[in-house]
Automatic annotation (TrEMBL), chains A, B, C, D:
Pfam families: Beta_elim_lyase
Domain of life: Bacteria
Name of the protein: Low specificity L-threonine aldolase
InterPro entries associated with the record: ArAA_b-elim_lyase/Thr_aldolase, PyrdxlP-dep_Trfase, PyrdxlP-dep_Trfase_major, PyrdxlP-dep_Trfase_small
Keyword Iron applies: no
Cofactor: pyridoxal 5'-phosphate
MF (Gene Ontology): lyase activity
Coiled coil: none
Gene3D superfamilies xrefs: Aspartate Aminotransferase, domain 1, Type I PLP-dependent aspartate aminotransferase-like (Major domain)
Amino acid sequence: MRFFSDNAAAVHPAVFQALHAADRLDTAYDGDAWSKRLDGALGDLFGTEVRALWVPSGTAANCLALAALCPPYGGVVCHRDAHIQNDEAGAPEFYTHGAKLLLGEGDGAKLTPDSIRAVVDAIANDVHRVQPHAVSITNATEYGRVYTPAEVAAIGELAKARGLGFHMDGARFANAVATLGCAPADLTWRAGVDVLSFGFVKNGGMNAECLVFFRPELAEATLIRRKRAGLLLSKGRYLAAQVLAMLEDDLWIENARAANAAATLLARAAGDRQIHAVEANELFLRMTPAEAATLRAQGFDFYDWAEGEVRLVTSWDQSEADVAPLAEAIAGLQGR
Amino acid sequence: MRFFSDNAAAVHPAVFQALHAADRLDTAYDGDAWSKRLDGALGDLFGTEVRALWVPSGTAANCLALAALCPPYGGVVCHRDAHIQNDEAGAPEFYTHGAKLLLGEGDGAKLTPDSIRAVVDAIANDVHRVQPHAVSITNATEYGRVYTPAEVAAIGELAKARGLGFHMDGARFANAVATLGCAPADLTWRAGVDVLSFGFVKNGGMNAECLVFFRPELAEATLIRRKRAGLLLSKGRYLAAQVLAMLEDDLWIENARAANAAATLLARAAGDRQIHAVEANELFLRMTPAEAATLRAQGFDFYDWAEGEVRLVTSWDQSEADVAPLAEAIAGLQGR
Amino acid sequence: MRFFSDNAAAVHPAVFQALHAADRLDTAYDGDAWSKRLDGALGDLFGTEVRALWVPSGTAANCLALAALCPPYGGVVCHRDAHIQNDEAGAPEFYTHGAKLLLGEGDGAKLTPDSIRAVVDAIANDVHRVQPHAVSITNATEYGRVYTPAEVAAIGELAKARGLGFHMDGARFANAVATLGCAPADLTWRAGVDVLSFGFVKNGGMNAECLVFFRPELAEATLIRRKRAGLLLSKGRYLAAQVLAMLEDDLWIENARAANAAATLLARAAGDRQIHAVEANELFLRMTPAEAATLRAQGFDFYDWAEGEVRLVTSWDQSEADVAPLAEAIAGLQGR
Amino acid sequence: MRFFSDNAAAVHPAVFQALHAADRLDTAYDGDAWSKRLDGALGDLFGTEVRALWVPSGTAANCLALAALCPPYGGVVCHRDAHIQNDEAGAPEFYTHGAKLLLGEGDGAKLTPDSIRAVVDAIANDVHRVQPHAVSITNATEYGRVYTPAEVAAIGELAKARGLGFHMDGARFANAVATLGCAPADLTWRAGVDVLSFGFVKNGGMNAECLVFFRPELAEATLIRRKRAGLLLSKGRYLAAQVLAMLEDDLWIENARAANAAATLLARAAGDRQIHAVEANELFLRMTPAEAATLRAQGFDFYDWAEGEVRLVTSWDQSEADVAPLAEAIAGLQGR
């Protein structure tokens, strides 16, 4: 069984059904009936007026958001371990035309008001230094931790006070909400978030993510930038339909709950092997190469993360029953 | 019946089947079994070694190709009516970091060696002028005309002599090949083409195009640029599978033949209304507003192109029988 | 005697004196006493509040202005023969991050409201087309013609009505004012101009031009862009001092008058050889290669412009007496 | 007396003389007699074939160098405290179209092979991470330390082994050479440096720095980029003349020796206040606010650097006699 990443899991049957349902000629690009329903559907979920744009990847979502919040000559505060810093091949710099990521600290890839202030306050306000224009956080984080609504709101207040835009990379937003049990609104716009990259691909989708603007005016230029980046697919309805399918009948949160539950079960087995508290669907565990080899010999696949550390990620399609054998195997390791 | 554009037609059943067949966990990005088969499958089709990369849109394909052929400070010769000039919202400038499109003339949106020379020879070879680095042609063109292998080869020779890269926008490459009945190789690398944007979305695909490098070394940096543009979808197998499905059993050429046949039937009915000879699946017809209204009243939808001109595009899923009523209606107009 | 270009002439003695007067330690960049006087000095000249920034080249001035008026995804309407289109090696695209120049027509490199409308009205207002955000004109033009205050105002009105920023490339602004005898204000902000590239290098300066913002708020980001482009020289006082010297005692207009007078004298001798009416300090003349050779044999140097055409440019340091021999020689040609 | 920075000092009389000597019409841009002598003059100094381009600022020199060595999607390893990282407002990102600075550690702003390896080895060689393409070091460093020829060569070897270009920011290269007493060649190309930003402005020049390519082929595209960035001043001879004047009669090294000598004298007085060993013309000293106030009350101006730290910079025009009163004043502080 594979625990490499949720980003390569299968597509949920409901998503496939939606693709089939969209399989008839309609207006191209985002003029079709499905695409036009996005603003409303996301607005309902978040309980406020939003502009919602499908995009084919999370990197695209993140970087369009950053470009909407930060000029080419500005900077974006993010965590040193943020996906936008380490795993997007310089896409933020491409989309923003060279804005600079300003790196902050924090346990579990979580920024705090203090760690943001440490970055921002060190920048003299003159023309020689790249000035901060936005903050970007990831929830759930790159280490599977979550920001609570209160933590997000504290950053949101700081952002507002400093005139910074506020972006949330929500590649695993559903997993965070599933863990927190909060309203999506409380974790986003009510906490000061301006733009959310709402991930669906890791959560049962095929190739549609959704960029949600809580400040609708930011969407205007983004519509142009999306086209200019070659992201305005001509048969956009097949992307919109995926997003809509994920929102219907709470599929997005159900899928996230399933993945989280599987991770929680594994975490329990892993005990104090946990390097970061397991709060979503990712596990970072201390494990010797020999132990890792033992698990792999039993048919479990996962990434080595660092020396003596491994990462396991559970997916929407892995039930607790599915992962129980791995939990047992891990617990067995502990017995040694 | 709608004749707006082939870019919003339905997806071919075989493509859907391929999506289902790919619906199981595999390696993310382009490390999966489907993506890895692309080089071979396209290499077989073209009879030479190629590097083939899926991308989710034709604009992305074109602009990655241009970025591979032209530095930020260079220029790309294209037709004044080229899609890259008029319909991509400045995406070429975005991907190339500001390269300049150098506009040439020619009937039916076709460049010729002479019209290219007219552009290139007018540029003094000094540091104040943007120097040409590449030529880009569209086949079939934006006006539904085709370049023959000999015409492409003549441009290819000029490109080689002048040290220019050579890109072909093949959003409707299949339609051109279907018309010409030539080997794909004769229309591309044997004629000097370095990179082809091979379109599938207009021809029965959902959201996968293929960038084909006949000079494989150009693909290396493009792999990075694709990621950097947010185009490296994590579940890439669903794109690769589409391309492979289109290639299997000659689906790509069969679909194009169907669309072309429908267009030819309409062209015959349109007679000397044709503004551009109908050589693929697009018709540009002289038509008064009253005549257009007559057709629309009969349930036929299409775009007004210019004053007294309309455009009709046929799709892979429109049989001759399907379009016969429109042909009759057009012929009826002629009777007036 | 050389008539290649005013852009390589000597430096006026008063400018050199000003450089010497500035030759003592002061604050770096633009914090010095000279730089701080620019806003006031230019504000006085134009009779309104301005922000004035020195820059070391006209290309830099133009492109910073365009970047202030047009986003990366926008377009700038300019004349087909504009310097920014043909002679700046793609610098506008570099500074704007890929904005597109939208080319208009007009005699003598002069745009008109009609020719601008022809460009702008042809652009469908959708996300696929690059939308116009600004107009840029050159006064005096690349062919030595001038726009009158009324002509500029007509373009200014159109720009305002269409929501377009308005830039004037004034590499030879002084020559235009000298010809027109108007107030600088009438040719700029009163006519709707937002930003002026005020040229001094061609007019007796060494390496300082001045960017004048009539909408001061546009200057803020430009201060950053200037630094980010490596244009914020550390000893800025040596640039500011040049600009101030040019403004003192009307040196800028006196120098321009001298150059214009020399050109007028030559124009009189050239008679109907003139391809463009001589309204500043440039002459474009019909001349056979043999005639050109005759002049060159007499020691007069100048550029061939096109087949059967030559260009001559006079400079601030060429008196009518200096150019009289050339006038005579040209008149002599006419006698043949 | 002011010790803020050498970047605002006066211009050496020999430089002014050279400007006057260049004050006659010649070919524009870099076609003049002075500009054409640069390759030869710098080639003589470095004892190898070079291409040498004047530019008006150090930021411009650095960033053109980085653009020559690193593609838009690449990374440049530099010290965390490098000028290109902290003091150029994102100019490296602008010129390279978004390349990423990869930050390394080291005392006194000096990178070491180990600290470079620590950066480079942590980057997985896949398409998701920005790959390193170049190393940039500053000599003398931002903290007034110098790299010896052996230290540079060790980095040069590593760069070569890893396929990285190698740039040296030599804003105070002269000060480094003056301290080391080595041949300029030993500190640059013989140690593997590909491009040097050779600074003259801090050392007696007005507004000309020189970009020296030890791999001449890198200069070709840079000539275009220089124009495209608005840096190809039309009266380039006034820049070339400055560089030539600085090279003549060893003025560049004499000036640097003077500045270094003044700094050394102050360093001796400062004793163990030195935070970084004084190896060029900058001093970073521990000093309480009260002590700093005492000095300022005696007419000495300088920057506070951090809490309890000040920075003093000496210039080419400050003799040991000139700075002796400050030395005495500092020593006096120590007595308290």
